[in-house]
UniProtKB/TrEMBL annotation:
One of its GO terms (cellular component) is membrane. Residues 18-60 form the DUF4124 domain. Keywords: Signal. This is Lytic transglycosylase domain-containing protein. GO terms for molecular function: peptidoglycan lytic transglycosylase activity. It comes from Microvirgula aerodenitrificans. GO terms for biological process: peptidoglycan metabolic process.
Length: 234
C-alpha cells in the first residue's frame, strides 16, 4: 500500500512538473513568465515588463524569478501631480472629512487621488477602476461601497483600503502605496515594492505629490515621506 502511494505521489509530481516547465522553440525569439498561480505565459513579443527573454532551447520554470531585470533603484525622479485647483477645491472638505474619520493624513488621500484620477469623479480605467481613487467594484464591495462612481462612497472605500494596508504593512507608507497600485499580494510576494516599472513610478509620483502638499504656508517642506531603500530590495 505504501509503495503504491509513493508511486502515485511520484507520478503526480512528474505530471505537475511537466506543466510548469515549457520547452521553447529553438528558432524564434520568445518571451515569457510564470504568474502567481503557476500559469505559464509565452509570447513572441515582450508584451510588458513581466515578459523575459528566453534563450532558444531553454525552459521557463515556475521557480524562475519574474521580472528581475528592473533594477531596484531604477526610478526616474517624479514631479508632483497638479490637478485642476477647481477640482481639488470642490472635494477638499469631503477629503478632509473622510481622512479624519479613518485617522489618515488628508495630504496622503490628496496625493493618491491626484495621481489616480486627477480629481475626475468619472474616471474609468481600462482595468475597470472607478472614480476619484480608482476603486474597482470588487474592492468597493470588500470595503462596504456599492456605488464606486459616487464620489463619497469612492473616497470611503479608498480610505478604508488605505487604512487596512497601513495595518497590514506596519505603517510602511512606501509599501502601502505600492500595494494600492499593484495589489497587496504582489507586495507580500516580494516583501518589497514589486519590480514593476509602473508601480515604482507610481510610488515616486504619489510621494512627490504628498511632499508638495505637505509644505507649510511659507513654502517650506514639512517632514514628508521618502523612498525607503529597504522597500525596494525586492
Amino acid at each position: 500500500m505504501i509503495f503504491k502511494r509513493l508511486i502515485c505521489h511520484t507520478l503526480r509530481a512528474l505530471t505537475l512538473a511537466s506543466f510548469l516547465l515549457v520547452t521553447l522553440p529553438s528558432q524564434a525569439a520568445m518571451y515569457g513568465y510564470v504568474d502567481d498561480t503557476g500559469r505559464v505565459h509565452v509570447s513572441s513579443q515582450k508584451i510588458d515588463e513581466r515578459y523575459q527573454y528566453i534563450p532558444p532551447g531553454q525552459t521557463l520554470s515556475a521557480t524562475r524569478p519574474v521580472n528581475r531585470i528592473t533594477h531596484p533603484y531604477n526610478i526616474k525622479p517624479a514631479r508632483p501631480v497638479t490637478p485642476s485647483p477647481a477640482r481639488v477645491e470642490r472635494y477638499r472638505d469631503m477629503v478632509e472629512e473622510v481622512a479624519a474619520r479613518y485617522k489618515l493624513n488628508p495630504d496622503l488621500l490628496h496625493a493618491i487621488i491626484s495621481v489616480e484620477s486627477g480629481y475626475n469623479p468619472k474616471a474609468l480605467s481600462n482595468r475597470g477602476a472607478h472614480g476619484l481613487m480608482q476603486v474597482t467594484r470588487s474592492t468597493a464591495r470588500r470595503f462596504g461601497s456599492e456605488q464606486p462612481m459616487d464620489p463619497r462612497q469612492n473616497l470611503e472605500a479608498g480610505a478604508r483600503y488605505i487604512s487596512y494596508l497601513l495595518k497590514m504593512f506596519d505603517n510602511r507608507l512606501t509599501l502601502v502605496i505600492a500595494a494600492y497600485n499593484a495589489g497587496e499580494g504582489a507586495v507580500k510576494r516580494y516583501n518589497a515594492v514589486p519590480p514593476y516599472a509602473e508601480t515604482r513610478q507610481y510610488v515616486a509620483k504619489v510621494l512627490a505629490t504628498y511632499a508638495a502638499a505637505s509644505m507649510d504656508d511659507n513654502g517650506a517642506a514639512a517632514p514628508a515621506p521618502r523612498l525607503e531603500k529597504a522597500a525596494f530590495n525586492g
